[in-house]
Task: inverse folding
């Protein structure tokens, strides 16, 4: 093959896009939808061969529902899931039960706190995107940059040899983000805790009241949350320094370990939930977080490249804000890019650079606060069984601070600007 033929073949494998989003999870799909709403077509690259639903379920707080409302999909999910009003934490050592209420309005604009199947959320977002927006089985190998026709481009080299050129690159590729590494962000930190999560299915109905049930015992914290009349989300969090690649993968062995070791002293109702687990939903993962100062002062954007969701601010799940914050990111990032797009009549390098810098400025302090609050919440709730740990947890945290924590996450990310419909039609 001559040099010219090789050059033509290489050029045929190159593709050009306005926006490329790496990662088809909550942050990636929500950002693609937010950009669609302002008139910008994005391409989403997803490593898996289908939508990923790792984690089974999550609770969405008022801040997430406001973001979903801005994205135009809240109405699709709200009828499927009822809002919580209260929860209970039982200390299995003493038998003491602490009741807590979920803050925020349960109806109307706030939409309350509702548990949602992760798959249902991803499907609701994906269904609103134009056909062929998500490119599955797409694995990113490396990133470079170049200038083309006076535009700065991020060049994505895929494992299959394809080269994608993007005027804007957004990394929504999770805790171990390739895009975050390219930007120079420091790697997330292991919190010293692991989480087992699963979805229990009762075909004939579970009969549980619609409320959150949590249990603490020594350094363990566990709980279960009804999603509807048949499905129950459950979790157990324990202290461990095991790395993710060292954790067992076999769901049968993980379930057995929970039943026979970790939760053997837990109530029979909890054990019954674990026994009803759909093993295809069961996961064991280390709880990671980004050190807040690394987020505040680190390189979270560079020219036309930035990150969102767990790629930007991985946090422990103790305030239930990982997915909620990702939805906030999507709306705010889409708003900044959309305003630049509308002002400049298209995607221009200078305008995009300013838009991404504005997005990072708006997000980094809030995200750092959520990371800190989540970590402290987990530290207090799994502080052990000493009288001091119980006093801090029951009297100070649940008695005084819990409501304030959730008032702090009752956040409004705002609306999206009205965009052109040209990109949606192409």
Result:
């Amino acid at each position: 093959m001559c040099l010219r033929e090789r050059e033509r073949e290489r050029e045929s494998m190159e593709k050009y896009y306005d926006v490329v989003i790496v990662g088809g999870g909550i942050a990636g799909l929500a950002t693609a939808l937010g950009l669609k709403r302002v008139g910008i077509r994005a391409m989403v690259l997803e490593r898996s061969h289908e939508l990923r639903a790792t984690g089974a379920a999550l609770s969405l707080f008022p801040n997430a529902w406001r973001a979903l409302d801005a994205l135009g999909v809240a109405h699709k999910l709200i009828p499927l899931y009822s809002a919580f009003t209260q929860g209970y934490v039982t200390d299995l050592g003493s038998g003491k039960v602490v009741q807590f209420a979920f803050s925020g309005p349960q109806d109307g604009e706030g939409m309350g706190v509702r548990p949602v199947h992760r798959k249902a959320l991803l499907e609701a977002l994906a269904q609103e995107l134009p056909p062929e927006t998500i490119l599955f089985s797409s694995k990113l190998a490396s990133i470079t940059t170049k200038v083309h026709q006076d535009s700065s481009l991020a060049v994505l080299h895929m494992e299959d040899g394809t080269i994608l050129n993007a005027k804007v690159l957004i990394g929504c590729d999770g805790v171990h983000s390739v895009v975050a590494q390219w930007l120079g962000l420091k790697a997330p930190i292991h919190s010293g805790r692991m989480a087992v999560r699963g979805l229990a299915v009762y075909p004939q109905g579970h009969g549980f009241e619609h409320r959150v049930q949590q249990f603490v015992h020594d350094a363990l914290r566990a709980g279960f949350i009804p999603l509807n009349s048949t499905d129950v989300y459950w979790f157990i969090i324990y202290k461990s320094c095991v790395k993710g690649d060292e954790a067992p993968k076999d769901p049968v062995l993980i379930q057995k370990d929970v039943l026979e070791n970790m939760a053997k002293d837990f109530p029979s109702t909890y054990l019954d939930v674990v026994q009803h687990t759909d093993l295809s939903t069961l996961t064991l993962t280390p709880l990671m977080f980004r050190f807040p100062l690394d987020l505040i002062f680190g390189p979270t954007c560079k020219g036309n490249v930035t990150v969102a969701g767990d790629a930007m601010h991985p946090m422990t799940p103790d305030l239930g804000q990982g997915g909620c914050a990702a939805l906030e990111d999507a709306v705010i990032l889409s708003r900044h890019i959309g305003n630049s797009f509308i002002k400049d009549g298209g995607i221009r390098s200078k305008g995009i650079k300013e838009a991404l810098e504005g997005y990072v400025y708006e997000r980094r302090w809030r995200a750092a606060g959520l990371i800190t609050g989540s970590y402290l919440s987990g530290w207090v709730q799994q502080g052990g069984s000493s009288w001091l740990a119980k006093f801090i947890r029951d009297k100070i945290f649940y008695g005084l601070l819990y409501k304030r924590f959730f008032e702090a996450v009752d956040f409004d990310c705002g609306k999206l600007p009205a965009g052109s419909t040209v990109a949606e039609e192409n």
Remarks:
- Residues 104-108, 421-426 have pLDDT under 50 and may be disordered.
- The chain has 13 helices and 17 strands.
- The radius of gyration is 22 Å.
